Amino acid sequence: MPRYLAIILGLTLLAAPAAASDQAVKEAHPHDRLHGHSEVPGAKGQCADCHLCAEPTAEDPCMVSCARHGGQFRGVHEVAEGPGVVVIDQLAARYEPVVFAHELHASMAAMSGGCTNCHHYSEDSGAIPTCRQCHAADRSEVDLSMPALKGAYHRQCMNCHLDWSGDNSCDFCHREAAEPGAPVAHDATDIVGIPHPVIEAVATYTYETSHADAPVVTFHHSDHVDVFGQQCVDCHRGDSCKSCHHGDQKPAEHARLDHVTSCCACHGERDCNFCHGREPMPRFDHALSTGFDLAPYHAGRACQDCHGDPRAFRYPSGDCAECHIHWEDGGFDHGITGLVLSADHEENDCSDCHVDLDFARRPSCDDCHDDYRFPAESPHCEICLNLMNEGDGRAAAPSCGHEVRRPVNPGRP
Amino acid sequence: MSNRHAVPFVTPGVGILMALAAAGLAVLAARLFWGLGAVTNLDNQYPWGLWIGVDVATGVALAAGGFTTAFVAHVMHRHQYEAIVRPALLTAMLGYTFAGLGVCVDLGRYYNIWHFFVPGLPNGNSALFEVGMCVCIYLTVLYIEFLPVVCERFRGRVKLPGALGNLDGFTEGLLRVVDRTMDRVITVFIVLGVVLSCAHQSSLGTLMVIAPTKLHPLWHSTVLPLQFLLSAFAVGLAMAIFESFLASRSLKRPYEVAVLAPLSRVLPFLLTVYFAAKVIDMANRGTYAHLAELTPQTLSWLAEVGIGVVLPAALLMTHRLRRSPGWLFAASAMIVGGVALNRLNVFVIGYKAPYADTAYVPSIPEILLTVGFISLLVLLYRAFVFIFPVLHEEGESHHA
Amino acid sequence: MVTRRDFIKCAGGAVAALGGVETALASTGPHLDPDRVGVLCDFTLCIGCRRCEFACAEEAGLPHGELRAYDDTGVFAATRRPDAESLTVINRYPALSADHKPLDVKVNCLHCEHPACVSACPVTALQKNALGPVTYDPWRCIGCRYCMVACPFQIPAYEYHDATAPRVMKCTLCQDRTLEQGRPPACVEICPQEALLYGSRASLLRVAKARIEAHPDRYVDHVYGETEAGGTSWLYLADRDFHQLDLPEVASTSPAEVTESIQHGIFKGFSGPLMLAALVGVILKSAGACEKCEAEAAARNEAGKEADHE
Questions:
Q1: A110 and A40 within one domain
Q2: Interchain pair C284, B34: CB under 8 A
Q3: Which among C184, C194, C203 is the nearest to A147, CB-wise?
Q4: Which residues in chain C (51-110) have CB-CB distances under 8 A to chain B?
Q5: Into how many domains does chain A fold?
Q6: Structural domain contains residue A342
C-alpha cells in the first residue's frame, strides 16, 4: 500500500498524464485482485471499474458491490414485492417457456436464506437485477468463469430440487415444445399466487439438556419474532429445502435449528445462565430484566430503535437525549406526561426536578419547595385534582406532601 | 503329385487335418458374412484375442527358424546345417503367410490393408505399422529365398499342359535366368531377411509396451522388444529341430540327430541370455512380488519360464541328452511351447481389461479357425515337401 | 538492416530446418495449437439428466430414443461404459454423506494431448488435430483395433457386428461442429447445468483451479486430465479421488512416449537396421574368409599327403 500511495503521490506531483498513472496503478496494485478481473464484463481497465471514490485507501477502499466478493444488500424484501410468476422464455427451443412460481419460492426462501438464496447479487440499494442482466443467453458472450443464462437458471433450480426430491427429470419444469397434445401455454393456474403455507411456530420451546446444574433451556420463539422483530432469515439463513422436506414427505415438525450456533450468533457474549436454568424461564420483561419500564411511552418501539442492529446490540446510556436529541434545546413538551410546566418551571433543567435524571422516580414538590404555600391560582391544585379524578389518586397525594382539599365544584353553590 | 517319399500323401492323420482345415475355412466364411461379432468373443474390453495371440504373434515367433537357420548356415558359413535350412525356410514362408492371413481375418476392414503402402497414410510412430511393413517385405523376401527350390525342382523338367506347351522353352529360360540371378543375389536377401526379422520380431514386443496399465506387470516392460527378439533367436532353432523330428516321423525318414544335436548346443546359451534378460528386468522393476500371488497369470508365467526356458536349457546342457532323439525332441518342444505360451501370455492371458466384467475366453469358432489354419499350414507343408526338394535327400547334400 | 537478433533467429531457423527430419522423428508428441480447445466437466454440477447422451447420439447419427426416454435413472443401477452405439454415458456414484448429492460422472474419450491411440494407429485413421480433437477417419481405418489396446482409458469401441465396414467408435469432440463450424460439441450445448464448459484448454484449466480455490470444501484438489497420460483435452472436477469414480490412475507421461522413443531409438534414420545389416555383413565376410582359409589349409594338407605318397 505505501508503495502504491508513493507512486500516486509521486506521479501527482510530477503532474503525469492520467493514463500513465492509471497504468502505474495497475502495475503496482497492492493486491493481486486485478488478476482475472480484466475479463469482467463492462470493465474498462479503470480504477472506477471497482472503486466508487476517487481516492480509495486501504481503510476505505470503497469497493463497488460485487457478487463474488460480498458487499451485497443484506436487507430483506417482502415476498409480495416480487412478481407472482415469472415466465422464462429466453431459451425456449426444445421446450416451451417455463412458468416459475416466484411467490411460492420467495415465501420459502423467506424461511431460510431470504432473497439472496437465489439472487446472489443485489445492489447496495436493495435493487435486485434479473439473471440475464449478468448472465447472457449466448455462452460466447460470457466470461468462462461465469455461467451463461441457461447454466445460471438450472443451477439455481436444480441445486434445491435435487436436494428436495432427488428428481432430475426435465418435465417437472419443462414441457417439450413439439409434444403432441400438450397445451399451447403451460397451465400455471395451480401455482400462481399461492405462497408457501404459513408455518405455525411453537411460541416457546423448552429443551432438556444434560447439564445437571441447569438442565433447562427456554427459547421463546414468538418473542424473537413478535417482540424482537427477527426475520426467519436471521436465524434460518443456512437452511435448505431439505431441512424441512425429505423427498415427497411433508415435514413432520418444524425443523429445529442447531440452536447452539444460532443462539450464540447473537447471544455469544452472554454467560450460561442467560439461557440455561433449573426451571423454564418466563418471557422477557423489559422492566424486570433491566429496570426500565417501557410502559407507557416506549411500549410501541422496536428493539432496534434503542438497541440498534441485533447483531451489534447497543445499550443506551439512559440519557433521554441520546435518542431524543431535539430535547437538548428544550424541545420536550412536558405536557405529554400530563403535567404542563408552568412558566415558572419552564426554564428549569430536567435534572433540577429529576434527580440524577432518574425518570422512573417521580419528583416530589418538596424536593424543591420547603413550604407548600402555592399561589392561589396555582395550576398545581388543578393538576393534582385532575390526576386524582383520572387515576386512583395515590400517586399525587404524597408527591405534593400536603393534604388535598377537594375543591367545591365551581358549578355548585 | 509326384511322390519323392516312401509314404502316401494322404494318411488318416492327413484326413483329420483336412477336416479341421475345412472347419476353419467354414468359420472364415462365417466371419466374412456375419462379422467378427458373430464368431468371436471379442468385445470392447478385449479387442485382441486368440487370433492375434496365436495366429499372428505365436505364428511369427515360431517362424523365426527361417532367419535363424539362414544366419547359422549362410552367414556364419556352417554348411553342415544346410539340411535344416530349407525346411525352416518353408516353415517361415508358410508361417508368415498364415500370420498375414490371420491378421486379415482379424482386421475389420481387411480390404484396406493396402493403406500400408500408400504414401501419406502410414504412421511411422506405430509399432504395428512397423511390424506389418516388415512382415510384408520379409514375406516377399521369403518367397524370393524359396525361388531356388522352385528352380531346382523344375529346371530341365518343364512340361506345361496343352497349348501352354509352347511356352515350355520360355519358362525353362526364365527359370535359368532366375536361378542364375538368385545365385548371385541370394546373400543380399539373406542379410535383408535377418535384419527385417530382427526388426519385426522385436517390434511385436513393442506392440504391448503402449499398454502399461493393461498388460500384467509380470510381462510389461520397456525391454519387452529385446525379450521378444532373444526368445525368437532361441525358438527359431528349436522350431527347426522340432519340425525336423515331426517331418522325419511323418515321412518315415531317419532322424537327423547328427545335424540337430550340434545345433542344439547353442540353445542353452540363447535360453540363458533370454532368461537373464527376463530375470534382470524383473529384479529391476521388482515385479517378482507378483509371483507370490496365486493367479492364473502367475502360474502361466511360471510355466512359461520353468518348463519353457529353464528346464530345456538344463536338459540341453547334457551331451548325452542332446544325442538322444527323444530328449532332444522333448526339449525343443518345451522351448516351442514356452515361447508360444509367452506370446499368448503377453497378448491374451496377461491382458487385464480395466473395465471387463468377465474374462475373455475364446469362442469355439475362434479356436476352430486357429486350429483350421494350423492344419492347413501343416497340409501345405506336407504338400510342399512332397512336391519340392525341401527335405535333405539321403546320401546327397544341397548346394549352398 | 539485419540485427544481431534477426541473425540469430535466421541461423536458428536454418539449423532447425537442417534438423527438421530428425526433429520430426524425435518429436515427443503431435504439434498442438496454444489455443487448442477442451471441455471442463464439473461432476459436482452434473445432475445426471443424460441429455448429453441424447445429444451425442443425435449428433453422431446413432440410434437413440425420444428425449424423455433419457429421464430413466434406472440405468444408473449398473456402471456403464461407452460402446459403439453410445459414445458417452453417465454413471452415478453414491453421495459421500447425507449432506452431499450423488455424483454423476460423464465417460467419453478424453482427447489426450499425446494420444496413445493416435500413436498406435498404423494408418493414421486416428489423428490428433492441433486444435484439440482426436479425430477418426473410417476411410483410412483397417480395423486392427490396436487403438483399443493402446487407450489407457479403454474408450474406443468397435462395431463388431458390422461384417463389411465396421468403425471404431469414440467421441470425436463433434469434429465437424468444433473444427468446421466453430460450435461447441453437442453434449456441451445441451447441458442444462453448464456442467460442461467448452473453451481453450488453457483457460479451462484456469477456471478449474479457480473453482477449487474458491470451494476447497466442494472439490478434491486435483484437475483430472491436467497431467494424466501426458494431459487430456477433457478436464474433470470431482468431490473425491478420481479412482473412486473408475477413472484410472495413469502416469503423467503419455504411454505413447515410451513406444515412440523405442521406435525412434531403433529406426531413427534407419540407423538400427543399417548397423545390423553391416554387422551381419561383417560376420558373413569374416566367417567366409575363415572358411576359405580353412578349406585352403585342408587342400594343402591333402596336397601334402598326396606328395608324400608319391
A1: no
A2: no
A3: C194
A4: 79, 81, 83-84
A5: 4
A6: yes
pLDDT of residue B40: 95
* Position B257 in a domain: yes
Strand blocks (E) in C56-169: 89-93, 103-107, 126-128, 134-136, 157-158, 168-169
- Is the per-residue pLDDT at C304 higher than 70? no
User: What distance in Å separates residue C288's CA from the closest CA in chain B?
Assistant: 6
Between residues A87 and A113, the one the model is more confident about: A87
Per-residue pLDDT at C310 exceeds 60: no
Q: Helices B257-264 and B325-344 sit at what angle, rounded to 10 degrees?
A: 50
Nearest by CB to residue A145, choosing from C101, C191, C207, is C207
A162 touches chain C (CB under 8 A): yes
Q: How confident is the model at residue B144 (pLDDT cuts 50, 70, 90)?
A: very high
Give B120's DSSP letter.
T
The answer to whether C261 and B209 have CB atoms below 8 angstroms apart is: no
In angstroms, what CA-CA distances link C33 with C9, C36, C113, C254?
A: 21, 5, 11, 18
Per mean pLDDT, which of A198-202, C26-30, C65-69 is the most reliable? C65-69
A47 by Cβ neighbours in 10 Å (0-12 / 13-18 / 19+) ranks as middle
Residue A10 has pLDDT above 70, yes or no: no
Residue B394 lies in a domain: no
* Cell 414485492 belongs to residue: A81
Q: How do residues B218-231 score in pLDDT, each as one tens digit?
A: 999 999 999 999 99
B74 in contact with chain C, both atoms CB, cutoff 8 A: yes
**Helix, coil or strand: residue C262:** helix
**Contact across the interface for C281 and B191, Cβ inside 8 Å:** yes
Q: Which grid cell sits at B99?
A: 500370420
CA of C122 vs chain B CAs: smallest distance (Å): 4
Of all residues in chain A, what percent carry a pLDDT higher than 70?
53
Helical spans, DSSP H, in C73-221: 116-120, 146-150, 175, 186-190, 201-214
Tell me the residues of chain C between 232 and 271 that have a Cβ less than 8 Å away from chain B: 246, 248, 250-251, 255-256, 258-260, 262-263, 266-267
Query: At residue A27, does pLDDT exceed 60?
Result: no
User: What chain A residue is nearest to C191 in terms of C-alpha separation?
Assistant: A151
The interface predicted TM-score (ipTM) is: 0.91
pLDDT at C21 over 50: no
Cβ-based contacts under 8 A for chains A and C? 51
Q: In chain B, how many domains are there?
A: 1
Flag whether B398 is in a domain: no
- Residue A193 forms part of a structural domain: no
Contacts of B36 in chain C (CB under 8 A): 160, 166
Regarding predicted confidence, which is higher, C219 or A344? C219
Residue A145 contacts C, CB cutoff 8 Å: yes
Q: Do A154 and C101 touch (CB under 8 A)?
A: no
Mean pLDDT of B353-361: 90
